[in-house]
Amino acid sequence: MNVPFLIAKRYFFSKKKRNIISIISNIAMIGVAVGSMALIIVLSVFNGLEDLIRKIYSSFDPDLKITIVEGKAFETDTEFMNRIRRMPGVAVVSEVIEDNALLRYNDRQMVVKIKGVSENFFQQNDIDTSIVEGDYHLIKDDTYYALVGRGVQFQLSIKPGSQFVPMQFLYPRNTKFNPMNPEGAFNSIPILPGGVFAIERQYDDAYVFVPLNYAAELLEYGRKRTALEIKVEDGYRIEQVKQALQKLLGEKFRIQNSDEQHTSLLRAVKVEKLFVFVTFAFILFIASLNIFFSLSMLVIDKKKDIAILASMGATATTIRNIFLMEGALVAFIGAAYGLSMGMLICNLQQTFGVISMGMATSLVEAYPIKMEIQDFVFTGVAIVVITLLVSIRPARKAAAMSVTENI
């Protein structure tokens, strides 16, 4: 029989408890409930945003990306490519040339990121499902076509499918500048706009996809590539294939998974989530100070009960535990209500999308929500620690009371 818990429960549910103590206890419960509910909701929103970021970039990013550690591009040959293709777990290897270039269309121009890709590029991502005009084919009937972002299209008023007005890319040639012929300092190759994609503003406003051979000729890269993008075969772990490739290629090459390609952004979300947790934990601590005041007043109110228990043989530890249990009851009942309400609100948002993000996006309209068990665990641990901090002083004061003075 847990005597301290039984007595604490009796005190908590007692109708004879003085009104002011009851009011303060109820305020403490409400504060803990609201704080824990808000903490779960906000943490779930950050989890949802993190998943949204991954979802947005998954349409564009490969499972693994190989780049050179020093410099911008690296040489490739048939043997080099075959070594990578023969690696267990490698399903598709796409060659990529990416650089900045000036794009002209009619009388307008802007600097864009030109990304030359091999023909198998669309086998490892979902960009073809993001086409809003035209189609995603970069080569049709031996004719090169470009796939432009929605933002680039708006900026330059590009009409996809037009056979009469080509786009013109300009890129500095690897020769000395001749002031008598300034246009000769640039490579310029026309290409027809074939389609328009809409993924996410960062890409839509900057990227243009072109065939790999076109980019190699325009940028004078030859067999050089800025990256190799790899799709991992089903049944293989990405980290396992990454480690095998790193061992094969050595330290000269950097191999990144999808998260590592956006490390700074994902780290910023995690850091913000940590600061939010600390902030709300502090708010929970402030709300739990009412537990301290209600316990202190309860100790004064129950002085005779404490003296009687001590005279009957109750140890100081038993008396202290009674009031610790009393504080735990107030905190945990409030937390149970708060966590339940937080879970309910998160489920409603997941199911019905009650609260809109209020911004245009091609993926979601409502705030994304994702509940994770560790958030509930960390919130519970925070409540336990806070309850102990605010309850221990009144409990010690009760255990130190004199029996003779209060009997």
What does this structure look like?
There is one protein chain. The model has no long low-confidence stretch (mean pLDDT 89). This protein folds into 2 domains: 3-58 and 265-406, no CATH class; 64-257, no CATH class. The longest helix has 40 residues, at 19-58. The protein is 51% helix and 20% strand. Helix 1 packs across helix 10. The protein is elongated. The strands form 2 sheets. It has a 6-stranded mixed beta barrel. The protein has 12 helices and 13 strands. The protein is an alpha+beta fold.
Descriptors for this entry?
single chain; 407 residues; alpha+beta; 2 domains; 6-stranded mixed β-barrel; two-stranded antiparallel ribbon; 12 helices; 13 strands; 51% helix; 20% strand; elongated
